[in-house]
Design a protein that fits this description.
Layout lengths: L28 E11 L3 E10 L5 E10 L3 E8 L4 E8 L1 H4 L7 E4 L1 E4 L5 H13 L7 E7 L8 E8 L10 E2 L8 E7 H9 L6 H12 L11
Parallel strand pairs: 4-9
Antiparallel strand pairs: 1-2, 2-3, 4-5, 4-7, 5-6, 5-11, 8-9, 10-11
Length: about 220
């Protein structure tokens, strides 16, 4: 008996080897086999499939996919004060791949964990920043690393109130090892930090650039 296949793994999941076997949306793809390589917190699978190329010939392919669930992220903004609310926390994968200290500046984000995307971003905003937020605006949905990671990330934006937690406070869920610093920045400063490489998180860059082009700060002059 294998955990995650015929008996529950530590998160209570079974049937993890069936993922993708019933897909019929693309007639050029025939799923042949799905092998679960690991199912600790996330799930690593190796899928074997036949693929019909543009010239008509078929080839047998194998791909590994990492399934950590879908997530949601939220840009908190205060247009009247010209600020955004971001976080800073340690990210081991970035640290081991060249980031100087692994402390990434990010928009609030987290996995859905069974909630709707809007419920998830409201939960994460409360846990990571301690701020009350206003009406949530859906921005777009993005596959962040479609070559290997299944995650679809739902992007949102919302105004926040300048109350409760103060910038510099440490937030997060202690039981999950979170140690999150709240950063309130002028929007122009956040954009400049992208150009200097001080903000290097993809979701955060995308939200800040959206805010400048089409979002709450669109049309606002950028200082020289």
């Amino acid at each position: 008996m294998t955990a995650g296949i015929d008996v529950p793994d530590r998160r209570g999941r079974t049937g993890l080897g069936q993922h993708g076997r019933d897909l019929t949306g693309n007639p050029r793809v025939r799923i042949l086999d799905v092998q679960v390589l690991s199912c600790d917190w996330s799930v690593l699978r190796k899928t074997t499939f036949d693929y019909r190329h543009g010239d008509g010939h078929w080839s047998r392919e194998q791909r590994e996919t990492y399934d950590r669930g879908d997530g949601a992220t939220l840009l908190l903004h205060d247009v009247a004060r010209g600020t955004v609310l971001l976080t800073r926390q340690f990210r081991l994968p970035a640290y081991v791949n060249g980031h100087p200290d692994g402390m990434l500046i990010e928009a609030a984000a987290g996995l859905l964990d069974g909630d709707s995307a809007e419920e998830a971003v409201r939960r994460e905003a409360a846990e990571e920043t301690g701020r009350r937020i206003g009406e949530v605006e859906h921005v777009f949905d993005v596959y962040m690393s479609p070559g290997s990671v299944t995650e679809r990330l739902h992007f949102f934006a919302a105004p926040y109130e300048n109350t409760t937690a103060q910038p510099g406070d440490m937030r997060g869920v202690a039981d999950e090892g979170e140690d999150i610093e709240v950063l309130e920045l002028p929007f122009s400063t956040a954009l400049a930090m992208i150009r200097r490489g001080e903000i290097a998180d993809a979701k955060t860059i995308m939200l800040l650039q959206w805010a400048a082009l089409d979002g709450p700060f669109a049309g606002i002059s950028r200082p020289a």
